[in-house]
Structure prediction request, 596 residues.
Amino acid sequence: MRMQHLTLLLMERMGLLLLITFILTRIPQFRSLLDRRPDWRTGLTFSLVFGLVSIGGTYAGVTITGERVDSSFLVASLQPEEAMADSALIGVMVAGLLGGVAVGTGAGLISGIHAYSLGGLTCVADAVSTPILGLLAGLVARFFAEERVIAPVKALFISVFAPILQMGVVLIVNESSTAAIRTVDLIGVPMVAANSVGVGILVAMIQAAMKEEERAAASETQRALHIAEMALPFLKQGLTFETAEAAANVLRRELRASAVAVTDTKQILAHVGIGMMPGIQGTPIASELSRKAVQTGEIQITRTKEQIQPHHPAIGAAIIVPFRSGGQVAGLIKLYYASVRQIRPVEEAFAQGLSKLISIQLDIAMAEQLRSLMKDAELKALQAQINPHFLFNTLNAIVTLIRIKPEAARRVTVQLGHYMRMNLTMTQAPLVPLYKELEHLHTYLGIVNIRFEDQLSVDCQCDPGLESVSIPPSTLQPLVENSIHHGFKGRTDRGDVHVELRRGADGVHIVVKDNGNGFPADVLETLGASPVTGGGSGSTGIGIYNVNRRLIHLFGLEARLKFSNLPEGGARIECTIPYQAEERRETIDESDDRRG
Prediction:
């Protein structure tokens, strides 16, 4: 009966200790400890906190004198024949299981020193055993290092052995005296039950507190992301009076703030809600905290009416949220509230998240714009490189013709002027209709035929209905030029070039082949990847390299040029240029009409 009464009494007082500990888990500072990286400061704080929990478990214990149970509370000291049945091991075991070896040992030392200072039959055993048990709990915790918090059931099972080991130390220290054996028989089972159950419940409470914090953080992050996504489309267009007002309306509606203002680094662009007045747009930023937010890039909280712009009797506090673009503060979002009591830690955490999200998204948008501009600039540079390449070859031809055929040189010069005017208009756009590209090719061939006369034949075949299909400008001419100037170099026989433009399932299939020298074997694998030299041809490959790069930029790797040599002699270049969305529908319709 005494054992049952002692067990119930310990459980009751252990419940009181856990209630106090539960309140501890509600304190934000305690929760922040759980989220910090382990260092000596955090470890020392944890040791002190759980050491105090252990001391509380000691004071909530029950005094044992022989076989008599004394239910007195908060015993200050014990007589030599007295012992304490308590739940002091709860704090020590939880410290070791959550904080590791150092924290468990530290909490055990604090608890052991306190137990020794109380005196009593078990004081020496408690002083020796509690640091050792904290150390052992920390070592056991290493087996569960992947778990942020050990499972309560596991903690309960491990803690069963702690009071048993402590009772063994009591018997060893007291040399198994009659008083020690009688005491262990009476308090052993109640202490095992109270301490193991208490550890399991305390770990469960800490785990629940951490999950609650994580859910709250996830909820606020999701809320900030949702609001940022709604406001970003306006902010991405640039900070103007119109976009700022649209973003401010979205933020006020979603945040339910008394008012919201959006500024750049110098003036108020929009203000909606309480305090809105005519002429406020364009007003210079006047409040000291707003200027400080622009200068430092840190969130500022206004807690007095004097720090708020604009002044209004219904506005008593505000959060000033700076956002960045390109690493520099681009503007402010001001969230106004009726009272400073409305600015809770949740609002502050939300403001931090909103600032970071908007800044990150604006940086991403800027990076996308820069990438697009760089891509356009590279395409224009690639197209521009083709013109000097062709111009250089043509001028060489004119120099030769001036000496032997002045009239032909005059015609080539006229044709060249016509070609260059056409080229200037075509290269303004990334894509041109196929019929314009064919006109461009025929103008080029008009120049070339004057020089080569009957030594060259270029045959161009195009499937009907492809005339309006879009392709990059100056695509066909460099491929044909490659055949003429490099494929037939050193040849005296007639050169034949065939250009085929066929309708494919997914795009226009282009083939340019000739009966010339073919590609040198040592450069065939690297053609189009970079300008090349070698192979005895003297070619730099700039023309086909530029065409290949533009195709990849615009359509992806599937559109790249493919090079091969023909078995009968000569070279073959082919590629497939995808249809645009409207062209694909027209192609499908035409195919259906042909089947019908």
Q: What stands out?
A: The chain is about 60% helix and 15% strand. Residues 534-539 have pLDDT under 50 and may be disordered. The longest helix spans residues 345-404. The chain has three domains: 1-214, 238-382, 388-587.
